[in-house]
What we know:
By secondary structure, this protein is an alpha+beta fold. It folds into three domains: 4-114, CATH 2.40.50.140; 150-289 and 451-575, BirA Bifunctional Protein, domain 2 (2-Layer Sandwich); 310-442, GAD-like domain (Gyrase A, domain 2). Helix content is 30%, strand content 26%. The strands form six sheets. Strands 8, 11, 12, 13, 14, 20, 23, 24 and 25 form a nine-stranded mixed beta sheet that branches. A five-stranded mixed beta barrel has the order 3-4-5-7-6. α10 runs antiparallel to α13 (421-438).
Amino acid sequence: MSAVIEGIIMLRTHTCNQLRKEDVGKTIELAGWVHCRRDHGNVIFIDLRDRYGLTQLTFDPKISKDSWQTANKLRNEWVIKIKGNVIARPTDMINPKLKTGEIEVDCSEINILSQSKTLPFEINEEKAKEAGEAIRLQYRFIDLRRKKVQEMLATKDKFIRYIRKYFHNNDFIEIQTPILANSSPEGARDFLIPSRLHQGKFYALPQAPQQFKQLLMVGGLDKYFQVAPCFRDEDSRTDRHYGEFYQLDMEMSFVEQEDIFEIMEPLMLELTKEFSKKKIVNLDKNNKFKKISYKDSMNKYGTDKPDLRFELEITPITDLVKGCGFKVFADMADLKNNSVVHALKVDNGAKFSRKDIDELTEIAISKGAKGLAYIKIEQEVNGYKLISPIIKFLGDELAQKILKEVKAKAGDIIFFGADKLDIVCQVLGTIRNVVAEKLGLKDNTKAAWCWVVDFPMYAYSEIEEERIDFGHNPFSMPQGGMEVLNKKNPLDILAYQFDLVLNGYEVSSGAIRNHDLKIMYKAFEIAGYSKEEVDKKFKAMINAFEYGAPPHGGNAPGIDRILMILNDWDSIRDIYAFPKDGKGRDIMMDSPSEVSEEQLKELNIKIIK
């Protein structure tokens, strides 16, 4: 890599990872940071570092006394520029761990470009971890010098370039949608921006470019994509960066659900192969991603983002325990309000200790259960023994039927959930995930992709009991169109909505959109919105749809989240050059911060404490 750009000579002729044995005899110039220094007799050795790698420098007073004297002042992280001759290292001093390990540079000139204070922590990978996240975020500009951080940022750059190339090759147009947008009910809190010119009114940073990309479809731009910045005021997690994140936003016209799968699957397969060492598992017989209905996913795995690297399927046993002697099961089996009894058989789980089971019980209670019933099947010389506090209530005959239903054997354990369906799913889904961790079933050498499809169009509101609200995306097309909206129980209506899941993480949501105004008004009416409210909230989209809207759909995978999972990186925050901490603060820039009275006055805003 040459440091000469269009005839302009830079401060260096080479980078610190570029010189090789064939460069011996050349006079070169390097610039970078002092990584470490060693004194051997009269000769000073410096490892010079830039983002490309390391080169060993030697300063010998016999070659240049002035340079040697200057080098004697150097400390770690000072920035220097040198000039010297490339020489071969003695055979016994070759460093096979470095790409530049066969050479060193005899320095004849040195220029100190910048000095450094003692670092608040060492940039050595192991010692940097000891410093803790808070201090590393405060001095993020130093943390960025770590090789691992630079490699992650470089990988993200290659990842995005690969995505762009893929979509351009498939005739998509990259278009940037507005950052200053309007507030929209996307499911999370908006970041609001007061307007100076229009006092009392606010912009909102887009949670997603949802409406804009649909308007692009109306505008005839039938294949759109964007690496889109999105902003949501929701708490950070391991897989969610606070405040801002980037997604691969795409939309197509004149498509059905399968068309979106056909364009997205090859990209995800290629990204897995190019940017991870994981083996792709769980494809169907046509080498496509498996499709699981939302209902089956909840019943079998207790979640709408199942980790399919391992099996551990949940089995409904409601009909089996109706009228049984165990009141907890019998009551749930007889109730009509969506109450169920499910069982989770865990292979080789009989080795769980009493302490393990108590810990799992606490987790179940934290998810809404009243407890966690179980049957442990312990191996004995002449067969097996059932150990459980509920056996005496179930009776041996019913216990044997349950064992047969869930295909349990000696050495297994069965956990039970008995409650309303949503609670049972949440409890056993969480237990499934935790026991898989305990048993080492989450194999990080595997990548298990799947589509979860057929999401319910409606659900009961989380805020108002018994009120119907949208279960997912309000702009999705209901399966069956106007006919099902007029005839079906809203809770039975399915939408053309889907999620893409990787190793137990939701990495994308998408849908075929509702482009028919009559169907849209009816869909919102069922959720309790009047025509006037819809017109007011979605004025631009409603107006556009009156001028000819094509059928369209798309999705938006989270770039940072996919990259984190494919590489088994510890936290999504590591993928950002300047991340927020777990409380949404930028410690380095002291953000968020107070602003002056003059600024508030311009916006007609007063702070009430």
